[in-house]
């Protein structure tokens, strides 16, 4: 069944990969993106492109659309600490406008990019969706506020919604890869060392209560993540807000990630232990049980070397001078 879909943030990393998967599945896709962090080349071929903010979704949405997949958001933790108002404006106020436009156009299905950052410091690992939510930064708080907003919209106005709480998204798909400016994420940073663009990688703390002392994270391949979004389109009933974690359920330490990059690239990757980064929990690993049972989702690219290989191919494809 072919659907007509609006993808906000479809010029970005995750939104672009999901849009490409939607098109491959035969759906019709309109990408709405203001190109504040996304790039025009990130919009997959075959998608209609509208350069606009999510606050202007009403200009595009009408009752011919079957659903919205909402990726457009500010997503840098450190920036959210320095400029929280940007996160309330873009993520919370922006989504409020989007929900109003959807109500107006009678588009009653939503898939939302939520995050593991809504949980904060976990009490038990693996983390289930019923775990306490206590975000430790404005980014996580803004995403949690939107999750609450969506719950109310479902109950009051019959929206069918799925919030997908991403753990550490990594890897690449075709020409869609992870790229931030400035870069703050571990795998792209280590790959910059392999590429000779950075002399060493910092290990933020090696005295955590983990097997090798460095932080453990649940890295999930962006293509696996994308497949969950396709399944989510049909998963919720009217009035229901389903919340699903997306992770592999297994963790890798910072040192294991660096070792894997050494194996994949053949580069020695000099690493230096630095002080802990504020707000980093020791271990973040998902229970993805809910995604398995409710979405019928099964991650297929769980080998860290495969994730790193795909990210490395993308990094190498970037031209000189590309950040
Ligand atoms: N990290 C690190 N050095 C870096 C960047 C990140 O040791 O230069 C660590 C960070 O402390 C965390 C893990 O790598 O434990 C993953 O960090 P990232 O920023 O990629 O994702 P997060 O888990 O913060 O969402």
Automatic annotation (TrEMBL):
One annotated GO molecular function: UDP-glucose 4-epimerase activity
Biological pathway: Carbohydrate metabolism; galactose metabolism
Top-rank lineage group of the source organism: Bacteria
GO biological process entries: galactose catabolic process via UDP-galactose, Leloir pathway
Alphabetically ordered keywords of this record: Carbohydrate metabolism, Isomerase, NAD
EC number(s) from the headed UniProt entry: 5.1.3.2
NAD-dependent epimerase/dehydratase domain boundaries: 6-242
Name the UniProt record assigns to this protein: UDP-glucose 4-epimerase
Protein species of origin: Actinacidiphila guanduensis
Phylogenetic lineage: Bacteria, Bacillati, Actinomycetota, Actinomycetes, Kitasatosporales
């Amino acid at each position: 069944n072919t659907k007509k879909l609006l993808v906000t943030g479809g010029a970005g990393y995750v939104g672009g990969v999901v849009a490409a998967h939607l098109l491959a599945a035969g759906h019709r896709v309109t990408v709405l993106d203001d190109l504040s962090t996304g790039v025009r080349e990130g919009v997959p071929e075959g998608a209609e492109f509208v350069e606009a903010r999510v606050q202007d979704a009403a200009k595009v949405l009408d009752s011919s659309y079957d659903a919205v997949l909402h990726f457009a958001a500010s997503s840098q933790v450190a920036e959210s600490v320095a400029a929280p108002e940007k996160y309330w404006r873009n993520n919370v106020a922006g989504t409020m406008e989007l929900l109003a436009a959807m109500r107006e156009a009678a588009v009653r299905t939503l898939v939302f990019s939520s995050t593991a950052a809504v949980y904060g410091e976990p009490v038990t690992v693996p983390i289930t969706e019923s775990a306490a939510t206590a975000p430790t930064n404005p980014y996580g708080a803004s995403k949690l506020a939107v999750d609450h907003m969506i719950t109310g919209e479902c109950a009051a106005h019959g929206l069918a919604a799925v919030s997908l709480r991403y753990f550490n998204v990594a890897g690449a798909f075709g020409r869609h890869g992870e790229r931030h400016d400035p870069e703050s994420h571990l795998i792209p940073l280590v790959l910059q060392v392999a590429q000779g663009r950075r002399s060493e990688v910092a290990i933020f703390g090696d005295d955590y209560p983990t097997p090798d002392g460095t932080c453990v994270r649940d890295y999930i391949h962006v293509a696996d993540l994308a497949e969950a979004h396709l399944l989510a389109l049909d998963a919720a009933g009217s009035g229901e807000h389903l919340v699903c974690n997306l992770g592999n359920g297994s963790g890798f330490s910072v040192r294991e990630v660096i070792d894997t990059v050494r194996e994949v690239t053949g580069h020695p990757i000099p690493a230096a232990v630095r002080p802990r980064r504020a707000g980093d929990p020791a271990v973040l690993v998902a229970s993805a049980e809910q995604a398995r049972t409710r979405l019928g989702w099964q991650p297929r690219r769980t080998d860290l070397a495969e994730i790193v290989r795909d990210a490395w191919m993308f990094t190498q494809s970037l031209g000189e001078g590309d950040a």
